[in-house]
Amino acid sequence: MAIAYFDCFSGISGDMILGALVDAGLDFDTLNSELDKLPLDGFRLTRKTVTRQHIAGTKIDVLVRTAEGREIIEGPGESGPFHDHGEARHLDDLTSIIEGSTLDGSVRRRAVEVFDHLATAESKVHGISKQEVHLHEVSGVDAVVDVVGACIGLALLDIDRVYASALPVGRGFIHCTHGRMPVPAPGALELMRDMPVYHTGIEGELVTPTGAAFLKATADGHGVLPRMVLRKIGYGAGTKDLPEHPNLLRVCIGDGVD
């Protein structure tokens, strides 16, 4: 039984998940070939090796082509305002995109579940049905690619079980479509319900809604590193270079031991 353990010592976000999986051995070209099965145009993935406080990791970005033909890095990552040049989508829109792909059924189901968790959390926070929710920050091309790419990665690496550490949360405020929001953002915090969390005192968002929703849909449990024969280790880099600690997500992949 293959296990993936996400060590979220600096939080978790969609781009960090993809970076960690690629760093652990997910074939980048195969990942791109699978993402081409989505009915979306005008995007491409880039990867590069970066260091965060002297530890090397893989940084993944989603470049989106604008109507003017420019390529931009779309989405907030963990560090900035949202740049989406498309229309904010509802859950039904995102489900249609994913179900309209030729991806494997297990990948489609898991990706739809991630977005369903996102919509459910936002509906609770805003007091409306999840069908009414506009998924502003998490419905852009980059979010779709991050979520679907992460689900593809688990499938290609033949992961049977997913576990994660407790989740660190920051403090302060972030700016989003709904205005100035406390950290953790209400939607992200709602997604962390029933997960172990702890406060870090770090200014800024560490666990993004996309990262929390991915764990909500995939994690079989939270805690310390489970017993395994360790086979692969990967580090996915966040956008910021934090002064407090390396801004990386670590994934440990191995064979479960009874």
Keywords:
five-stranded mixed β-sheet, 258 residues, three-stranded antiparallel β-sheet, 12 strands, alpha/beta
Summarize the structure.
With 258 residues, the protein is an alpha/beta fold. 31% of the residues lie in helices and 29% in strands.
Contiguous uncertain segments of 5+ residues: 76-86
Structural class: alpha/beta
Question: What's the main sheet like?
Answer: 5 strands, mixed
Total number of beta strands: 12
Give the count of structural domains.
1
| Overall pLDDT metric | 91
Strand percent estimate: 25-35%
Helix content estimate? 25-40%
- Give, in spatial order, the strands making up the sheet with the most strands: 10-5-1-12-11
Distance between the termini: 10 Å
Shape: globular
Count every helix, treating DSSP H or I runs of 4 or more residues as helices.
7
Order of helices and strands: EHHEEEHHHEEEEHEHEEE
Q: Radius of gyration over alpha carbons?
A: 17 Å
Structure explained in plain terms:
- This protein is α/β, with parallel strands linked by helices.
- It has one domain (2-256).
- 31% of the residues lie in helices and 29% in strands.
- A hairpin with a 2-residue loop joins strand 2 and strand 3 (55-65).
- The chain is globular and about 45 Å long.
- Mean pLDDT is 91; it is low at 76-86.
